[in-house]
Amino acid sequence: MRKTIALSYLTVVLLGPLAMLFWRIWQEGAGKAWSAISEPDTLHAFKLTIEIAAIAVPLNTIFGIVVGLAIVRTRFPGKGLVNAFVDLPLALSPVVVGLSLFLLYGRTGWIHIGQILFALPAMVLATVFVSVPYVAREVIPTLREIGDEQEQAAHTLGASGWQTFWRITLPSIRWAVIYGVVVTTARCLGEYGAVAVVSGSISGRTETATLRVQDYYENLDQAGAYGVSLMLGLIAIVVLVLMTLLKPKEGTA
Amino acid sequence: MDLRPVELGFVTTFLTVVVALPIAALVWASRADGWSGFWYWIRQPEPLSALKLTLVMAALVALTNAVFGTLIAWVLVRDSFVGQRLVNAVIDLPFALPTIVAGLLVLALYGPKSPVHVHAAFTRAAIYLVLLFVTLPFVVRTVQPVLHELDTQMEEAARSLGARELVVFTRIVLPSILPGILSGVAMAFARAVGEIGSIVIISGNRPFRTELASVWILNQTQSGNGTGAAALATLLLAISFVVLLGVGGFRRLATRHERA
After folding, report:
1. Which CATH architecture has domain A29-249?
2. Where are the domains of chain A?
3. Tell me, what CATH number does B133's domain have?
């Protein structure tokens, strides 16, 4: 009984819509969807999305590890505030993030240095903002779980802080870091709201993959919208497979 | 151990540039015309109606997740069925899939070309459905590990003493998983309040009918009303902080035995 209810709910809310990913492409014609995917503006959108992720993911990986170590292993004033800022993007609307950047770097804003808005820098800043928490939130519980005895031992034996980090700490949190990187990447590739506000969505210039979906949708090009969606959906499925493979290793590393 | 200056400097600079400065600029801009200017925009009929609809939808979605998220977690931990591992993996899909794609998929199933002949696109029902899609993992993933750790001996003892299933659940299981449910519900609520990608596709964005706060902010920004957008956005920011405080509280509630 409860199995039936749970599975029915999942079918209506999640599995049914998911099945549409392939069904709609088939309905629109794979040829039309494919020609949309191979349009120069669409290819540019994917290239731009990957470029943004290639900057945002490493930044947030380094930050996530450093802030995780800082929160778990050290004392410093304002730790509560740091914690709150790291978590904030989880609970904040991406539109609010985009608007904040828009106001900071806009005409009446505080910072005027070159072309930030409607260009790559603002799109990177927006993407970095929304994906701040994911590596940190994986690293923090793992660091707590493994404790600091091995690090202390290495320290006692004369290892420098840097040696301890590379030889002891990083190897024991590596699965958490990799899991966090996978989730961060997915978040960066799928970002829409914050980038929509700051990018200007100019086809072939500042349009990312998700903005391309909206562009096709608003121009009533269903084959295009579902074609690009299928690409993004396939990436999501790869991400999901990686998440599933990495999960049992969480905490056991 | 104290944090070294290099790392403290890095963390502070990163958070200031990436998070704190933009947030400060937002709050500052919302007060451009003073408090009265702030309240003027919040009290305008259109943004007010968008905010109310957003909060009501998010509350409904959060409540639905409380019930069905818990049920799904229960079924995944306690029952066994064919395809269970696949279902368990698919739960995370809304975290991996761009939400604008989620919007298109819900539109495909429940929109004009619906293969099941349900046409709910551009209605509040469609907003509800798409928000359920994007918030699905939160409660399931916070309740599942707690349920997994839970010792079933107490439940068996209660049953052998004649307690009915409902009593076993409410008296023994529920108190242990409640903090997990509440923090999952709070996160789902925040996510629903802020959702944008799927909403621009599915809501139709009709003022006073299907217009949500996030879409109103997006449209005002694009049409040049930065102050109005900033006012409502600052309110959403405050809601986010309240939710995070709540989640922190529930988390402490969950670990109170460990600390005692």
Report:
1. Orthogonal Bundle (1.10)
2. 29-249
3. 1.10.3720.10
Helices A94-105/B213-222 angle, 10° precision: 20
Q: Residue B240's domain spans which residues?
A: 34-254
Q: How confident is the model at residue A141 (pLDDT cuts 50, 70, 90)?
A: very high
Q: How many domains does chain B have?
A: 1
Does A15 lie at the interface with B, CB-CB under 8 angstroms? yes
Q: Identify all chain A residues contacting B29, using CB atoms and an 8 Å cutoff.
A: 103, 108
Question: At B237, which helix (H) or strand (E)?
Answer: helix B226-254
Whether B99 maps to a domain, the answer reads yes
Residues 64-103 of A with CB under 8 A from B: 66-67, 69-70, 73-76, 82, 84-103
Rounded-to-integer distance, Cα A65 and Cα A170, Å: 9
Q: Residue B125 domain-assigned? A: yes
B133 CB within 8 Å of a chain A CB: yes
pLDDT tens, position by position, A49-88: 999 999 999 999 999 999 999 999 999 989 999 999 999 9
Residues of chain B neighbouring A152 (CB-CB closer than 8 A): none
Q: Is A207 left (phi over 0), alpha (psi -120 to 50) or beta?
A: beta
Closest CA to A251 of A149, A167, A175: A175
B15 touches chain A (CB under 8 A): yes
User: Does the residue B141 lie in any domain?
Assistant: yes
Which residue of B10, B19, B77 is the best one to mutate when testing the A interface, meaning the one whose CB has the most A CBs within 10 A? B19
Write the pLDDT tens digit of every residue in A178-190.
Answer: 999 999 999 999 9
Closest-CA residue to B107 (of B141, B133, B137, B86): B133
Look up the pTM and report it. Answer: 0.95
Q: With an 8 Å Cβ cutoff, are A232 and B109 in contact?
A: no
